[in-house]
Amino acid sequence: MINTTIQIYNSSQADHDRIICERLANIIDAKLPGTENKIWHGHPVWFIDSNPIVGYAKLKNAVQLLFWSGQSFDEPGLNAEGSFKAAEARYTDVNQIKEEDLNRWLDKSITIQWDYKNIVKNRGVLNKLT
C-alpha cells in the first residue's frame, strides 16, 4: 500500500508531473508488495529490509526514477547517476513510461542489490547483497 506521505507528495506536484508520479508509484507498489515505502530525504522511496531500492523525485525539468543498484542491471534506458551504483531514467511525459521495461527493472531491483543501508558503517564501501 502506498504510504499517505507519498500520496501527499504526488498530489502536491503540478498536474503534468503528478500524473507521472502517480503512475510510477502505482507500478512500483504493485511490483513490490509488502515493501516499506516512505518519503526519504524529501522524495518517495521503496525499501527492502531497510535498504533503498527505487524511488523518484521531481527535478526542475523532469521526474527522475532512481534505482540505487541500477548500474548493475545492465539495462538500456537506465543511465549512471552519481558515484556509486545508482542509475536513473527521466520522464517529461507519462507516455514515456514503458511498463514492460519498468517491471523488468523492478524485478532486477529485487535480486540485484548493493548494501546502501550500511554504507556509513562500511566507511563508504558498497557490498553486494544479492
Shape: globular
Question: How large is the share of residues in beta strands?
Answer: 15-25%
Structural class, by secondary structure, is alpha+beta
Helix count equals 3
Low-confidence runs (pLDDT<50, min 5 residues)? Answer: none
Number of extended strands: 6
Order of helices and strands: HHEEEEEEH
Please identify the top-level CATH class. Alpha Beta
The residue fraction in helices comes out at: 25-40%
The major β-sheet equals:
6 strands, antiparallel
CATH topology: Aspartate Aminotransferase, domain 1
Strand order of the largest sheet: 1-2-3-4-6-5
CATH architecture: Alpha-Beta Complex
Spatial separation of the terminal alpha carbons: 25 Å
Total separate domains: 1
Average pLDDT rating: 93
| Cα Rg | 14 Å
